[in-house]
Amino acid sequence: MRDALPQEAIIPPDWQAQASTGAVANDWLRARVEMTTAQQAQAVAAYGAAALVAFRQVENALANERLLARRLPYEQSALANSTDAVRIATIQYRTGRRDLLWVANLQTNQLALEALVIRVRSLQRANRIRLHLALGGSFEPAPATVPSAAQPTHLEATWSPAH
Question: Domain extents for the chain?
Fold first, then answer.
């Protein structure tokens, strides 16, 4: 008996339109969920990459700090030895045992070593700045805090009148 009924009697015509609209809405919603999920995965990957870069920067800065800390005493020792050599050569020049060119060459070497010590110290400071920034530090001034009237200042809290 059911076969003898027309299609419209079994499924109302507006239901088919609603079903197709629902299917489109469902497909749109599914696509929107997939897109949002992909965006979230992309954000997580970007965060992970940024974290890896930060870890690498900190690791490099710490390794450089160790290397520069080991290198500086050697350079300072070489400078001290060169300074002693210049002092001795100057004495020898004044007594006539060495010529001025000998002293000038030693002084040139001493100046080069002084520049090297300054360079290593500069590298240390630049490395510490990079480490500070890699650890999330900033050079922006901290906001000034104004003590409230209810809280006494340090001087007011410690001062008491003499009896």
Answer: 15-136
